[in-house]
Amino acid sequence: MAAPSVAKVDGKHMGKQSTFHPGAAPYGNFINYYTFNPPIRRLQFIPTDVLDRILDAIKVANHDAVATVLDVGCNTGDLTIALYEHLLKGGVPEVVKQTSEHACEETSSEKPPEEGHQVDADDSGKIKPDQCDCVNNSHETKCEGKVSGSKQLFMLACDIDQVLIQRATEANPYPDNIMFQAIDIMDSTSSNKVFANFLDAHHASHIFDLTTCFSITMWIHLHQGDSGLLTFLEQVSKRTRYLIIEPQPWKCYKSAVRRVKKLGQPMQWQSLSELQIREDVVEQIVKHLVTECNMEIVQRLGETDWERQLLFLRNSMNTV
C-alpha cells in the first residue's frame, strides 16, 4: 500500500527520484501489489456485519442512514472494492475467492511472497493478460450501495501515487459509491478539505464512520520518522469513529532495507538507526492510539500470513 510522504533526507525531497524500480517502491506503491497479497487475506478476518455493528453502536436509526468509509493507502483499489462488496453483501465476493485461489496456485511456498516480490508485468506495470488482475476487471453483478435495509455506503480511498489512483479510477465498478483520490494525508490542509467535501457531498457527519489503514504505517514511519508516525495516528483517529489498522512489525522494516540494497537502488528514506520506535513498533502504535488518541480496542481480528495483526478500534470521543 502506498503511503504519504513529504519528508526530506540529505536535503532532497523524497518525492523526486530519477529511476523507479518496482521492487523498491519508496512509498510501498508496488505495482500489481494485489497479485501477491490478494484482498481475501485481509477480508477473511473482517466481520461481514462490521458496518451494521458500527451504525448500531452510534445509535443510527433503522431508517435511511449514510455510512462513510475512508481507506488510506489504497494502491490500485482492489482491496477497497472488495471491502465495499464484503460489507454490502455480507460475505466475501465470489470473484475475490477466485482471485485468492488463483494467487495461491501461483505461489509454491507455504506463505505468500513478501512485499516487493514482483510477478511478470509489461513495461507499463500492468499484468499480462494471462495473469489474474484481482477484483477490478470482473464484476458479474454490482452491489447497490446499501447495507441492511436502506443504509447507504460511500467510500473514499486515497493514495499518494497518482498513477495507482488513475488505474483504480479507471477500473472502478462503483463510481457512484467509491471515490479514488490522490492526496498526501500528511498534508492536513489539503486532505481535510478533500475529506470535508466528500462528507458534505453525501450529507454525512463531519467524520468517517470507519477508516482502514492496511500496511501503511511503516512507510509513513520510514519517511516521516517517529514524530510523523505518531502525528499520523493522531490525525487519522480524529477523523473517524472506528478504525481498522494493520501495522507492519519491525521485521518488515529490515526486509524493506534489504530489498532496496539487493536491487542496488538508493535509499529513499531515513536510516533505521534514526528511529527510536523500533522492535516494539506495533506495541507502540497500539499504546499511542489508546493513551493519546482516545482509541479503545474493540477486537483483535487476527493475523495475516505475513504475521501482521489486524486491529479493530473505536474512538471513545467520537462514539456514544
Count, helices: 10
Largest sheet: 8 strands, mixed
Rg over CA atoms, rounded to whole Å, is: 19 Å
What is the chains' assembly state? single chain
Structural overview:
The chain has 320 residues and is an alpha/beta fold. It contains ten helices and ten strands. It has helices at 33-36, 40-43, 50-57, 78-89, 94-106, 162-170, 188-201, 217-238, 250-262, 281-292; strands at residues 8-9, 12-13, 65-72, 146-147, 151-159, 178-182, 208-214, 240-246, 295-303, 309-315. The strands form two sheets. Strands 3, 4, 5, 6, 7, 8, 9 and 10 form an eight-stranded mixed beta sheet that branches. The protein is globular and about 50 Å long. The chain starts with 7 loop residues before the first strand and ends in a 5-residue tail after the last strand.
Q: Could you give the topology of this structure?
A:
Blueprint: E1 8-9, E2 12-13, H1 33-36, H2 40-43, H3 50-57, E3 65-72, H4 78-89, H5 94-106, E4 146-147, E5 151-159, H6 162-170, E6 178-182, H7 188-201, E7 208-214, H8 217-238, E8 240-246, H9 250-262, H10 281-292, E9 295-303, E10 309-315
Parallel strand pairs: 3-5, 3-7, 5-6, 7-8
Antiparallel strand pairs: 1-2, 4-5, 8-10, 9-10
